[in-house]
Amino acid sequence: MAPSLRIALMSPWNDCCGVAIHARLIGYAWLSLGHRLLVLASTDERPRGRVPLDTPDEPFVHRCWEMYRYGDRIEDDEPLGLFFDPRPFLEEDFDVLFVEKPCSTPLSQLAKIFKHLRARGPVIAIMHEGIVPENKRLYELEWDMATVFDERYMALYGHLLRARRVEVVPYPFHPVREGDKGAAREALGLPCDDHAIVLAFGLRASHLWPVMPVLSGLASEMDLTLLILAKGREALSASEALRARYDFVEVRHEAPPPERLYTYLHASDAILLHRRPAPYVPVSSTVNLCLGAMRPILCPDNNFFEKCDGVLKYSGPEDLEDKLRLALEEGLPKEVMERALRYIKEREPRKVARELLDLTLS
């Protein structure tokens, strides 16, 4: 067990973003283990703009830099002129600094104070990048350690990272938190238990069009609502287009924090995560965040979900119809639930948070 530490975490925070989800799961795990946390968070995001959760920042959050989501696809961020305030990095006390998805940060500015930061304590890169990063700034910095989520990332660029060590540390899962469907629906003003609710998210609403005929067919046979949570211009536009075409679609203009999100998950009969394959090495942060609600998660059998267990994967529209009907009528199959519980236990946030610190201090 590591001694109580002052941990700094450079990351997007309280955002609709897989990097921010990882940061929150790990950050709150560190707090629960008795450590102090300082979050050095992004003020905004290019090119599309930050989509914040519907929650205020905690007292330990300082917003002091600007994020560029595709920083791994450019050679140098300096021409972008990303905002960077070095003062919290230089003036706040911390024993170790973790940098989430470093290529999305103003690396050209961070490089100017990097030696000073390393003189104070270890600086660790938590790699999310799903391609071989093109950003030359990444390779100019010598990290005390870099971590990748699994062997795919290690094979892709682990040997290229300029770090004293490169370790595999998995993306954590939200702990299991079961809830009563009836109570959740009452709290959210949703229909009673015998009305089927399928939950989806607006960030990928435009991907849903190919499977909407499946949902429409089921909606003609039973009382069914496709409930989409959406916030941000693009997500709302895509979600509202679906609602205009299909009368069983309901859109709520929300980006709920995890506590309220889990109420929505508990109110649902199934979660539909339909999205196209990725042209990069992906991790489904939404599965990691939502699986702990113990509701059936349906997703296509493509590379975006290849590392996911405890979910229902479908090969096409007919397979989706069969598995969604099964989920709505019978719930989560026992063997799938058992796999989900094992999968979550292996990657519980406190376990992953301890591993990160133990590797850092060893």
Number of strands: 13
- Main sheet properties: 7 strands, parallel
Architecture of the largest domain in CATH? 3-Layer(aba) Sandwich
CATH superfamily of the largest domain: Glycogen Phosphorylase B
Average the pLDDT over all residues and give the rounded result: 96
Helix fraction bin: 25-40%
* Poorly predicted segments: none
Q: What is the CA-based Rg, rounded?
A: 21 Å
CATH class of the largest domain: Alpha Beta
CATH domain topology of the largest domain: Rossmann fold
Give the number of domains: 2
What class would the helix/strand composition place it in?
A: alpha/beta
Please report which band the strand proportion falls in: under 5%, 5-15%, 15-25%, 25-35%, 35-45% or over 45%: 15-25%
What order do the strands of the largest sheet run in, or round the barrel if closed?
3-2-1-4-5-6-7
The sequence of SSEs as H and E is EHEEHEHEHEHEHEHEHEHEHEEHHH
Distance between the termini: 11 Å
Overall spatial form: globular
Count of helix runs: 13
Which features would summarize this protein structure in a list?
18% strand, six-stranded parallel β-sheet, alpha/beta, 13 strands, seven-stranded parallel β-sheet, Rossmann fold, 13 helices, 362 residues
Question: In summary, what is this structure?
Answer:
The protein has helices at residues 18-32, 87-91, 107-120, 136-140, 151-157, 181-188, 212-219, 233-245, 258-267, 285-290, 317-330, 334-346, 349-361; strands spanning 6-10, 36-46, 61-68, 96-100, 123-126, 145-148, 166-168, 196-201, 224-229, 249-252, 270-272, 297-300, 312-314. With 362 residues, it is an alpha/beta fold.
